[in-house]
Amino acid sequence: MGKSVFIAEKPSVAQEFAKALHADFKRRDGFLESEQYIVTWCVGHLVTMSYPDKYDERLKRWSFDTLPFLPKEFKYEVIPAVEKQFQIVKGLLTREDVKTIYVCTDSGREGEYIYRLVERMAGVKDKEEKRVWIDSQTEEEILKGIETAKDLSEYDNLCEAAYLRAKEDYLMGINFSRVLTLKYGRNISNYLKMDRAVVSVGRVMTCVLGMVVRREREIRAFVKTPFFKVIGKTANFDAEWRVCEQSKYYNTPYLYKDNGFVDKEKAQELVTFLSDPLPAQAVIEKIERKKETKNPPLLFNLAEIQNECAKQFKISPDETLNIIQELYEKKLVTYPRTDARVLSTAVWKEIPKNIGGLKNYQPAAEFAGEILEKQLHKNIAKTRYCDDKKITDHYAIIPTGQGLSNLNRLSQTAVRTYELIVRRFLSIFYPAAQYSRVSITSKCKEEAFYATFKVLTDEGFLKIAKTSFSKSSKEDEDGKCTREVLEALKKYKKGDMIDFNGFEIKEGETSPPKRYNSGSMILAMENAGQLIEDEELRAQIKGSGIGTSATRAEILKKLNTIKYISTNKKTQVITPTLLGEIIYDVVECSMKQLLNPELTASWEKGLTYVAEGSITSQEYMDKLEGFVGRRTQAVMGLNNQ
Q1: Which residue of 186, 294, 438, 458 could cross-link 434, Cys pair, CB 3.0 to 4.6 Å?
Q2: In this predicted structure, what is the pLDDT of residue 543?
Q3: 174 phi and psi, to 5 degrees?
Q4: How far apart are CA 399 and CA 335, in angstroms?
C-alpha cells in the first residue's frame, strides 16, 4: 500500500498534522516520516513569477519600446532562498511509493496558489491529490478535514482565481509602474531632489492611497463654522431649543440647521426674549416614553477584529493579523482570514463543545456555564448569527474552547485580543440590552424646547461584553447619571407646566471629516472605499471589498514602507506623505481609473466569479489584458509632464 504525503504551508502547521495523525514519526531533513505517512511543509511561497528579463534580456531596461508587456505564457521559478526545501518537497511529491497527496496549505485562495505552484514546478503526475479544508487546528478538526478531504480538482476554479490574482497584480504593477516612471519619474525626482523616483502603483495599493489623499485634502479644504445653541435649564433637566413653525426665527437666514444660530447675537436675542421674566413658564406639549433594544453585534471577521484592536490597543492591522494567526496556530481560535461574521449551520451543531471548553477560561467561565445550563444556545441556528448564505470559505472567528494552556505563553495584547473574541462570541447567546427612552417637547412663548433621556433598564448581553481591561463605558455612565432623572420625569404628563430657571448659550463648531486610522481603513477597504461607522448598518450594507482579508494589512504595510503614507504608531492615524500626494496627482492625471474604489472592487468581484465558476478564467484574462494594454498605450500618448 502506497504512502500518503501531507503538505502544509509552514513547519508549525505540519507539526500539528503530525500530532493529530498519532503515528511513530521519525524526523528527517525537511519532513517527518512514519511507516504510513510523510508530513512535509512549504515555508510560505516556494515558487514565484519570474521577472520580465527572464522572458527577454531587453526587458531588464525600462523603455517605452517594450511596453505594454503582455506575455502569452507566464514563467515561474523557485525562490533561491528556499531552493533546498523545494527540492525536498519535490522529491517527496514525486516519490514512487507515494500514492496520495493531502494538500494542507491554508484553506483559502492564497494557500491554494502556494501548493499549485509547487505542484506545477515539481511536475507531480499520476498521484491521487486531496484537499484538506479546515476551520481550526484542533485535532478533531484536522482529522475531520482529512476524512472529508475532496478531490483537488474540485478546487480548480479557486486555483484559476488565485493564478489570475497574481497575474493581475504582476501585469498592472509592471506595466503601470514602468510607464508612469518613464513618463513622470524625472520630474518627480527633480522636484523632490531625489536621485531617482520610481512610481510604484498597484490595483489595490493605488486605490487605497487615493482614499488617504482625498480625505486629507477634504480636511485641508474644510472651513470650520461656529454655531450657537440655546439651552433651557429646569430643576430636573436641560432642554435644547429647536425652531418650530410658530417660532419667530422660522425660515429666517439666522439659523444653523434647526437647533442653533450662525451668530451669537441672535442666540443672545432669543435668551433675552425668553428670560423676561424668570422663571419662564413653559407647557409640556408632548411626552413620549418608549422601550429600545440593542442587539449583540455580529461575530468578528478579520476586518472587524483589526478595527477593534486598532481602537483598543493602537496596533496595526498587520500586528493584529499576526496575533490572530498565533491564536489560530495555538488552537485557541478558528481560521483568521475570513470575511464572514456568522456561523454555518454545520458548525452550530458543534458549538456546545466550544462553549464547554470556555468554562475553563476564568474571565468567561461564569457566562459559558450559564449558557449551557440554561441552554441559551439552543435556538441560535434560527437567528441572524447563523447564515450559510453569508459564508464563502470560512465562518466567523470564534474561540475553539481548546488550547487554553497556551495563553500564559502569549503577549498581553494577544491575551486581550483572545478575550475580545471570546466575549463577542458568548454575547450572541444573550438577549438584547433594553433601554427606556423619554422625550419631552415643551413650548415657552411659542419657542420649542426638546429633551431626550435614555437609561439602561436590562443589560442583557452587555454584562458579558465589557472586558476585564476596559474602562467604564459611556453607557454605564449614562445609566448611573440619568436613572434618578428618569424617576423624576415619571410624574410629568402632557399639559403640565414647567419652569425654566434660566437660559444659556452653548457654542460649538462644525468638525472636518476624520482621518482614517489603520482599523477604519481596513473597514473602508472591506466595503469598497465606503467607511460606515455604524456597526449595525455595516452588517447590512456589506459590499464588494478592495483586496481580501488576507491582503489588506500587507497593502497598508507596503504603502508605509515605500513612504507614500505615514501611520502614527501611537494613534494609528494615517496621513499621506508629500511623495504619496505627488504619486496621487500623477495617477489622477494619467490613469484615473486606478483611484476608483468601485472599479477596484469590481476586479475583486470578478475573481470571486471565477472561483465560483460564473465566468471563465479566459474571459477574465481577456478583460485584464485589454485594460492593461489600453491604459499603458494611453499614458504613452499623453503630453502632460
Answers
A1: 458
A2: 55
A3: -70, -50
A4: 10
